[in-house]
What we know:
The chain is of the alpha+beta class. 34% of the residues lie in helices and 13% in strands. It is built from 12 helices and 16 strands. The protein has helices at 12-15, 43-47, 61-65, 78-90, 148-155, 159-166, 211-218, 221-230, 238-242, 248-255, 262-284, 290-305, and strands at 35-36, 39-40, 52-53, 59-60, 93-94, 99-103, 115-116, 123-124, 129-130, 133-134, 145-146, 170-174, 187-190, 195-196, 200-205, 245-246. The protein has a 4-stranded antiparallel beta sheet, with helices on one face. A two-stranded antiparallel ribbon has the order 1-4. A two-stranded antiparallel ribbon has the order 2-3. Residues 1-16, 21-33, 38-57, 69-73 and 317-325 have low confidence and may be disordered.
Amino acid sequence: LNEKYTVPIQKSAKAFSGVGESVVLFLAVKKAGQSAELRVSSPAVAESGGVIENSDVAIRTSSICSISDELAIPLARKSDWRLLEWLSENAKGKFSSLAEGRVGDVDQTVYRDFMVDAGDAILLRGDQLVPFAADVEPRKEPRRFLERSGFYRLKGDGAPACRERVEHERIAQMGIRNRECFPRLIAARIPQGVFCGNSLNVWEPRNGIPFELVLGLLNSRLYDWRFRLFSGNNNINIYEVNSLPLPSGLAALAEGCNFSNRKACSELASVAQPVIDAVKMAECAGAANLAGARSCLDKAVANLFGLPDELQDCLLLPGKSVRRRAKSN
Length: 329
């Protein structure tokens, strides 16, 4: 980067007043062997002719080149760029090869008349989910249940497919989560027969893919870190989760994994066993032990990716944890 690529934004100070984070606009020329450094300035310093220099955001050209053209360049620290560059070289697979995701079954506006206070079909919403646990107790509560016959009748041609999905154990994921919250990604196992509102995403592992592997990745600190870099709003979009990285070798196993190819399924399960074990421990952990169980999961995921120890520092970010108050069957 040099002076001829400087792009002044005259109204940036006013537009971003009180936001609490820096917004940097820059153009980069991808040329091998060159390095780049970002310089962040503020109106107060600019008046005195000075420039704030932050060496922590200095990045290499190779890091810029590692970013997909389909995604926005993130606001990140130098350590984030190093890990991102490592993942671009060693984790070329995509989470979409493990599971199929969709928005929750029930549009809470369209089908509001069928959301009732008592019934036999639980309707799960985003505020009833915490990591590894969903509140699916059948207690009387405003709009906690779904009147199924009316819902299916209004759903029309989409009813059979919805009915088939609901009759299987699935993974629910919070679909709207404030960017300031930690963690951003929250997922839990839900039993068959539970409906999900459209404030949730729902994931179903593909044929032969271990259920706990999908659940573990969706609750991992590595995925949470990676999602934060590219997320521009409070929505947890399906396409963003689908693009999360997966170790290249694991992705290759997943592509060949189906119920007729038991060898590939067995090999995949063997590779993922530490993650599977960590998820089972997290699901059984009480509130006091959840932090320890999640730490074991994060270590298992890091090992699954083959992540070097020196690149794991940026995953240890302080943040507000989610209280474990939901209960699962």
